């Protein structure tokens, strides 16, 4: 029972982290129909930049906020210089953003080296919290879960209840008509792209604090985001949440009970979903 409960909590934590990364990817990929294969590199940039800001300021919160702003700004530059110029050409967008991620990853490797970097969050969230059955659980992992829930609710409110959200949803269906009604479609698109990049930066700091930061994490989280979005459905935040939960539980229970087949189980799940619902569990049929 103790092992089962511990694995369940780990699965919820990993699912929360995957959702934080995949939510931004889902916004960009699903709502804007823009292929940003540099999303994993933006996660890594957020993790490293947050670490450096926190180290220099002595404030973990400053590192969190600074990383979000910095990565959002990099996302704006990426969109305006590369992605926007290739609008409608998904293959070229994919190739260009892959190139961007490789360059960014190498620059981070030059700056920080190949060693693993470990955050030092405030003691209040770095200690252990008493927990039933397992005795105690790392507080920082509970923070990951709480942040994911808050971010999910805020994003849902943004998309469903605000003028920006209504414009985004209308633009997905018919951008020319939205522009004809007086909306600045380009500005809304840029805002969503910056938001998605900022969420990658947020996930980088949260994930780096709960786990660690090391070269190669960009590829891992890009792949995880792709699988989560494919399983959940493009452009659906509830789908991203559901996909993250399914992938997180499959991965963690696989590692605990079938370690040799954990990765295979994740992709079997993805193939099974694609076989019965090619648009994802909560995606719209095109």
From TrEMBL:
Record Pfam families: BPD_transp_2
Keywords: Amino-acid transport, Cell membrane, Membrane, Transmembrane, Transmembrane helix, Transport
InterPro entries the UniProt entry points to: ABC_transp_permease, BCAA_transport_permease
CDD domains attached to this UniProt entry: TM_PBP1_LivH_like
Keyword Transport belongs to the record: yes
Membrane topology field: Multi-pass membrane protein
Membrane keyword on record: yes
Spans traversing the lipid bilayer: 12-32, 60-82, 94-114, 134-159, 188-214, 226-249, 256-276
Principal location class: membrane
Subcellular location: Cell membrane
Family as reported in the entry's similarity comment: Belongs to the binding-protein-dependent transport system permease family. LivHM subfamily.
Protein name as catalogued: Amino acid/amide ABC transporter membrane protein 1, HAAT family
Provenance organism: Noviherbaspirillum suwonense
């Amino acid at each position: 029972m103790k092992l089962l409960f511990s694995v369940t909590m780990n699965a919820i934590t990993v699912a929360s982290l995957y959702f934080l990364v995949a939510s931004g990817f889902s916004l960009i990929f699903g709502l804007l129909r823009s292929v940003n294969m540099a999303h994993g590199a933006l996660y890594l940039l957020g993790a490293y930049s947050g670490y450096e800001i926190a180290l220099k300021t002595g404030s973990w919160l400053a590192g969190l906020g600074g990383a979000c702003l910095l990565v959002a700004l990099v996302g704006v530059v990426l969109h305006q210089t590369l992605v926007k110029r290739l609008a409608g050409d998904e293959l070229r967008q994919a190739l260009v953003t892959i190139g961007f991620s490789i360059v960014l990853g190498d620059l981070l490797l030059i700056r920080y080296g190949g060693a693993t970097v470990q955050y030092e969050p405030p003691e209040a969230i770095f200690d252990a919290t008493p927990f039933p059955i397992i005795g105690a659980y790392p507080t920082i992992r509970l923070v990951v879960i709480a942040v994911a829930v808050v971010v999910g609710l805020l994003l849902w409110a943004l998309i469903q209840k605000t003028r920006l959200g209504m414009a985004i949803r209308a633009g997905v269906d018919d951008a020319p008509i939205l522009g004809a009604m007086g909306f600045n479609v380009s500005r809304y698109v840029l805002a969503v792209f910056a938001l998605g990049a900022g969420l990658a930066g947020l996930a980088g700091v949260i994930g780096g604090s709960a786990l660690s930061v090391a070269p190669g994490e960009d590829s891992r989280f890009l792949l995880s985001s792709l699988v989560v979005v494919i399983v959940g459905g493009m452009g659906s935040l509830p789908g991203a949440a559901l996909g993250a939960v399914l992938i997180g539980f499959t991965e963690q229970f696989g590692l605990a009970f079938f370690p040799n087949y954990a990765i295979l189980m994740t992709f079997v799940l993805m193939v099974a979903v694609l076989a019965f619902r090619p648009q994802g569990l909560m995606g719209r049929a095109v």
